[in-house]
Amino acid sequence: MDKPNSEKTITIKINGKDRPFQEKKEEMKEKSWDPRQLDRQKKQDQTEFFASIQTAAGKEADDSFDWILPEETEDEDIKEYKIAAPPKSPAKNGLSTLARKFRGRNKQGFLTSIFLAVFFAVLLGTSFGFIMLKLVFTDQAAETVVAPPINEKPAAASQQTPAGSAGLETIATYVVQGGVFSNSEAAQQIKDANSQKGVYSQSITMGEQTFLFLGVSGSLDEAKEIGADLKSKGIDVFAKEVTFEGKAIEGVNAEEKKLAEIAPALYQSLSEGAASATLGSSITPETAEKIESHRKTVNELETDQIQNKSLISVREELLNASKQLETYQQSGDAASAGKIQEHLLGFLAAYQSLLQSGGQ
Question: Tell me, what's the pLDDT at 35?
Answer without folding.
Answer: 56
